[in-house]
Design a protein that fits this description.
Elements: H1 2-45, H2 49-61, H3 69-88, H4 93-123, H5 128-154, H6 158-170, H7 176-198, E1 204-209, E2 212-217, H8 223-246, H9 251-270, H10 274-338
Antiparallel strand pairs: 1-2
Length: about 350
Amino acid sequence: MGSSRSSKFVIFLLLLMIALVGSSCSYYNRVMARMNLVDGAQAYNERKFDEAIEKFHRAVEYDPEGNTLESKTAQLFLARTLHSLYAGNRRDKQKAEMAIEEYRKALPGFLRETAENKAALDAAPGDEKLLSTYEKNKNIVGSIVSAIGSLYENLQQDDKWQNWQKQSAENTQLPGTVRANAYVAMAAKKYDCANEISDDDAVKKTVNKGGEQVFEFTKPAEEADFAKLKKCVQEGTAYIDEAIKLHGESDSAWSYKASMLVQSMRIAEMEGNSAEKEKFKKDSEEAKAKFEELAKIRREKEEEAARKAAEKVGGEAKGGDKKDASDAKKEESGSKENK
């Protein structure tokens, strides 16, 4: 009986020791990751980029899965450091490829945290702190997705760019705003494709009507070009409609919506369809008005945020001045007492 109790006690002690060691190891890893993250940031600020990359790598190694804030942040900083080095030397394409790889590693951790933030916010919709955290992580996710697309574009890897934007647009794990931006990016390419054809001098001619100089649009000489124009407008319109479904308050989406409607208006004129032309013209003007309204709201929000940030900085500076003045008075008082 006594032997049985003794054995159970020994097993209990072993399990306790394992739990404590595991907890200690996790804590140690987090501390070391944080230390390397701070050292890496300092090295980056001092433009010691190789050292910064090494420190960020070390921070990530303590938690490769990106479960802690320290490792996620280090992974992101590593990607951004490589991206900055490529931006400073566009001939160093290897840095761009490395940055893409590190951005891809960083994305799942922030995506997971954003989903957790959203679930918490849904449970407590009035919590401003949760909202702020969710918006911050959502913006980070958006910046990562955008950075990868930008690097593919800079590397002129069109197929990879297209695949990345398509994957991002269709990825239901991504926030709606991020998916909308991917659709807008694809729509922008289709607009460029269409405008290159419809804005050509052989198609877009200046004529005099009623004493007024106006543009007149005629079909391209090649039927293949006209078919391409229609296809680009059709696909671009589909993309932008998806973007608006996901994020109807995007002024960028409404700007391209107006532009695609103008292209549709040009096609209607080329086909001699006056009724369709007038309809697309009216729709494009409405979309343009919507874009201008949303752009104004966005600018006002940005200005308000900048004002609040300036006030906060000013308040902190005044608080520091008051503290300095208070400390000076205390020193002066102490000096008088000593006399």
